Amino acid sequence: MLKRNKGVVFLIIGCVLLLVACGWYVYNIIEDKHAGQNASDILNEFDDAQNEKTDKNAPVITADGDAFCGKVIIEKLSVELPVYDEWNYTRLKSAPCRYTGSIDSNDIIIAAHNYKSHFGSLNKLVIGDEVEFIDAYGKSHLYEVCELITLDGTAVSDMQSGGWDFTLFTCTKGGEQRVTVRCNRIVCK
Length: 189
Description:
Number of strands: 9
CATH class: Mainly Beta
Mean pLDDT: 86
CATH superfamily: Sortase
CATH topology: Sortase, Chain: A
Order of helices and strands: HEEEHEEEEHEE
Largest sheet: 9 strands, mixed
Number of helices: 3
Number of domains: 1
Oligomer: single chain
């Protein structure tokens, strides 16, 4: 009788754990979809604000009360996303953020979540792929992927080192490491 009761307890625990895992999976799918929709809505507002921009010398575009430094386009991954001018966790749930640096100083670093609708496929880029950034002035900047690396999540100085013109990064699925894409500007002839 004791063995049977033990088996029932383990079966119930297993079922509860399975339900929790399924719930977490569904939550992640919903969060990803929500983030993609938010980014799409923000991108529409960004594009409208850029078209209506009256101060052509302003380094940011203001849309829905937030400042954006531009938008990133990665055609190979079908990604077109607005980029917040300042980084924080709340903004990161909606769209990529400028982590540090700037386009003008050729050292911009952009962070995004690993949602499928954001930078979740960043690891599919290869050396030679192109990334475009359109700044708040409407000027296009074209970059070539030169290096793909995975950095430790605490390697902040490594993220900022190397003298790269343009860096994109996101967390790995476990969140302990960062998929990092280093790019250099393509000089138009």
